[in-house]
Specification:
Number of helices: 13
Number of domains: 2
CATH architecture of the largest domain: 3-Layer(aba) Sandwich
Radius of gyration: 21 Å
Largest sheet: 7 strands, mixed
Strand order of the largest sheet: 2-8-7-6-5-3-4
Helix content: 40-55%
Bound molecules: pyridoxal-5'-phosphate
Strand content: 5-15%
Shape: globular
Number of strands: 13
CATH topology of the largest domain: Aspartate Aminotransferase, domain 2
Distance between the termini: 45 Å
Length: 392
């Protein structure tokens, strides 16, 4: 069977090498503990589940949804942006609900990119930006992020030719995988850059509300005039522990939102309505559980940082995101080799930074989304490994 080039060109699955090692260790009877995947272990808050149960009983919710969502959901998203960010959105023109933000992120390039067009993608970064660009026939130009810059891109060093051919610049703060955050001044510079170069900014705000130590993450749309040149993706997945329910949103520039809604209406039929009801309940409801979840993650983060430092890794406690991003000890070059050694010696899985791009080499990422008891057992093994004692 001959498959299309776009499928043949797909990079090997990010964790292919790691998955093999995990399988190997398991077959030897090792109890593998994975810090690999960013998927909240804590359940969706009770009142949100109850609203789904009620909505599931209504026959009106058993039928095809509209692909651009219930007006009530678009209004709830607009209310959320008002309440959370002080940003006023037109629910009928500046909001489109998504079947998880990944869906919209993957489809956006179909709205912007013709063959030969460029997407600027920060490196290291979430892989979907690049895959969506490839599916649309576009080219990717990587914009490296560096620790010394707080993992913010040097916009004035983007090559002129790439900027001229670029249709979109992807940004993501709070950032996966580095945990870095951006302040409003950076977003102001980015909006100015986008205006000067006539490039759309697509900002991924998936970790808006997974924040620690009193940090409050801004929306790019808080910047004056941002919606002339930007859209923003947001998601209930990480903030409301709703990864399994698939609810996200794109908001901002109305021309682009309209294009995305049109593309989607030809590809999907929207979020199941009972789940849209659930999302409305989440967005309009109390936020005390979010605070409690973040306290759990922050406590895990603090315990992880102590042990990672014992291993000689250099790490700054992140102010947001579900990840600890740690620099390998001096003399270690390959994040994949280091991760492999950890699995073999301790049965603990971490993600090599190289999986997120060339600029991620030299780092590993640990996710804080595993239950406390498992996390502590994993950290116990790493601490033993640090002292040269047997970990398993
Ligand atoms: C998790 C994640 C998403 C996708 O979340 P959805 O569940 O599809 O809404 C998007 N961007 C980044 C950077 C993520 O880490």
């Amino acid at each position: 069977m001959r498959l299309a080039r776009r499928v043949e060109q797909l990079p090997p699955y990010l964790f292919a090498g790691i998955s093999r090692l995990i399988a190997q260790q398991r077959s030897r009877g090792v109890d593998v503990i994975s810090f690999g995947i960013g998927d909240p272990d804590l359940p969706t808050p009770r009142h949100i589940i109850e609203s789904l149960q009620r909505a599931a009983e209504l026959p009106a919710n058993h039928r095809y949804p509209e692909s651009d969502g219930l007006p009530a959901l678009r209004q709830a998203i607009a209310r959320w942006y008002g309440r959370r960010h002080g940003v006023a959105l037109d629910p009928d023109a500046e909001v489109v609900p998504l079947i998880g933000s990944k869906e919209g992120i993957a489809h956006l390039p179909l709205c912007l990119i013709d063959p030969g067009d460029v997407a600027l993608i920060t490196d290291p970064g979430y892989p979907v930006y690049e895959i969506g660009t490839m599916f649309a026939g576009g080219e990717t130009v990587h914009v490296p992020l560096r620790e010394e810059d707080g993992w913010l891109p040097r916009l004035d060093e983007i090559p002129a030719d790439a900027a001229r051919r670029a249709r979109v610049l992807w940004l993501n703060y709070p950032n996966n995988p580095t945990g870095a955050v951006a302040d409003r001044a950076f977003f102001e510079r980015a909006v100015r850059w986008a205006r000067e170069h006539d490039v759309l900014i697509a900002h991924d705000l998936a970790y808006a509300d997974v924040t620690y130590d009193g940090y409050v993450a801004p929306s790019l749309l808080e910047v004056d005039g941002a919606r002339d040149v930007a859209i923003e993706f947001n998601s209930l997945s990480k903030s409301f522990n709703m990864t399994g329910w698939r609810v996200g949103m794109a908001v901002g520039n109305r021309t682009v939102i309209d294009a995305l809604a049109r593309v989607k209406s030809n590809l999907d039929s929207g979020i199941p309505q009972a789940i849209q009801q659930m999302a409305i309940t989440a967005l309009d409801g109390p936020l005390d559980e979010l605070k409690r979840h973040n306290e759990v993650y922050a406590a895990r983060r603090d315990r992880a940082v102590v042990v990672l430092r014992q291993l000689g890794l250099r790490v700054e406690p992140p102010r947001a995101s579900l990840y600890v991003w740690a620099r390998l000890p001096a003399g270690e070059r390959s994040s994949a080799d280091y991760a492999q050694r950890l699995i073999e010696a301790t049965g603990v899985v971490v993600t090599p930074g190289r999986s997120y791009g060339e600029a991620g080499e030299g780092y590993i990422r640990l996710s804080l989304t595993i239950a406390d008891a498992r996390l502590d057992e994993g950290l116990r093994r790493l601490a033993a490994f640090a002292t040269g004692a047997p970990a398993l």
